[in-house]
Each structure stands twice: as structure tokens, then as C-alpha cells.
Design brief:
Layout lengths: L2 H20 L3 E5 L2 H11 L5 E4 L3 H5 L2 H7 L3 E2 L8 H8 L4 E4 L3 E3 L4 E5 L3 H7 L4 E7 L3 E2 L2 H19 L5 H5 L14 E5 L8 E6 L6
Parallel strand pairs: 1-10, 2-3, 2-4, 4-7, 5-8, 7-10
Antiparallel strand pairs: 5-6, 6-9
Length: about 210
């Protein structure tokens, strides 16, 4: 990665982390995927029960593989025949892994969900939530973050899942009410009432969508 981008990411991450801390959340900056994996494993004690939604970023840094191979109780929803049982198990987990569709420079996270298992677990349930967020998802303000979530993340995810939505066909949001829409629930995480529950690892590499 270009050295100027590396420097910019580190400086911007400092601002985002201050914003997170002002919102009773913990933030960390890792320059690359390898550092992010190391930090994540430092934050998750061995023996912890861990689950996740559809967090591509956790896969990309190697965290999911490390949890499956390590001394952890990884609740793999893909291994469950009863998907609802896997989703319900997430609410009592020690850690829930997620990313953000977008995060503002002052630490507000935006997430959009179709089935809503991910946003509901972020809001309530698991003892701790660990976000893995690439610096490509940082936006200047809430308006920009919402636009990114709806016009970047949502169309790509709709295409990834093979859904028949206007955004999957055009690449931009139509504010649709399609039966396939994944924009059913919007969660804005602006403050954590419970200190030490929400942890955010910002990563210098581009991650996710």
C-alpha cells in the first residue's frame, strides 16, 4: 500500500478511536490483517464461546479459521441444520464478531440487515461485540456513512447473495420494498451503555464491502 495512504490511515484512525472512546467503546488500530488477527486473539480469551453474523472481514484477517482451529467454542451457524437455533445461541455467546457497513470519523457505526440477527446481536445479547473494520469504511459523517451502507455495501451484498433487487441490478440504492431486500433494519451504534462491551479493531487494509 502507498506510504501516504498508510500514514493517512494511521492518523485518521487516531481520530476515530477518540470518537469511539467518547462513546464508551474501545478502539484499536492495526496497520494490516496480520496485526488485526493478533489483536483480536489478544481480546478473545481461550475457552470463550464465539459466534458471528456474515462478517467477511473476520474471514479476511484469518480470525474465523484461527477460532475454529484453536481452543475456542466457535458457534458455526453454517454447521447448524436449524439456523434459528444457531442465531439464538449467539445471544448468549461471550463474543459476537461483526463488521460495520460504515463508521464515521467520530465513532458512530451504521449497519443494515435483512434477517436482523446481526443488528439485534450487536444491540443486545452477547457479552461482548468485536468489530473488525477496514479503514475503507470510514466516512466523514452520519449522512456519508448511511449513503455508503446503502449504495456500496448493500448492492454488493445483494449481488453476493444472488438476490433480485434493484440495487443488485444497477449498483445503487432505490429505497426499494422488494421481497428480496436486505435493507430491513438499520442500526446506528452511537453509544454503549455497558463499558467494555463493544471493541472495534480498525484495520489499515481494505476489508469487506
Amino acid at each position: 500500500m502507498n506510504e501516504n495512504i498508510v500514514k493517512r490511515n494511521a492518523l485518521l484512525a487516531t481520530k476515530v478511536i477518540k470518537g469511539l472512546e467518547s462513546r464508551n467503546m474501545s478502539g484499536y488500530y492495526c496497520a494490516d490483517k496480520e496485526e488485526a488477527l493478533k489483536k483480536a486473539l489478544e481480546l478473545i480469551p481461550e475457552g470463550s464461546s464465539v459466534t458471528m453474523g456474515g462478517c467477511m472481514s473476520a474471514h479476511e484477517i484469518g480470525l474465523v479459521q484461527a477460532l475454529k482451529e484453536g481452543n475456542y467454542d466457535f458457534i458455526d451457524r453454517d454447521a447448524y441444520e436449524d439456523k434459528r437455533a444457531a442465531m439464538l445461541a449467539a445471544y448468549d455467546a461471550d463474543f459476537f464478531l461483526s463488521s460495520a457497513n460504515a463508521i464515521t470519523e467520530d465513532g458512530v457505526m451504521i449497519n443494515i440487515d435483512g434477517n436482523s440477527n446481526r443488528v439485534s446481536a450487536i444491540a443486545q445479547g452477547p457479552k461482548k461485540v468485536l468489530f473488525i473494520v477496514g479503514m475503507n469504511k470510514v466516512c466523514s459523517d452520519i449522512d456519508g456513512a448511511m449513503k455508503r451502507a446503502r449504495n456500496v455495501a448493500a448492492p454488493i451484498n445483494a449481488q453476493r447473495f444472488g438476490l433480485s433487487t434493484p440495487c443488485a441490478k444497477t449498483g445503487s440504492c432505490f429505497d426499494c420494498k422488494s421481497p428480496d431486500t436486505i435493507c430491513c433494519q438499520f442500526l446506528m451504534t452511537r453509544f454503549s451503555r455497558h463499558k467494555d462491551r463493544i471493541h472495534v479493531i480498525l484495520v489499515g487494509d481494505n476489508l469487506g464491502f
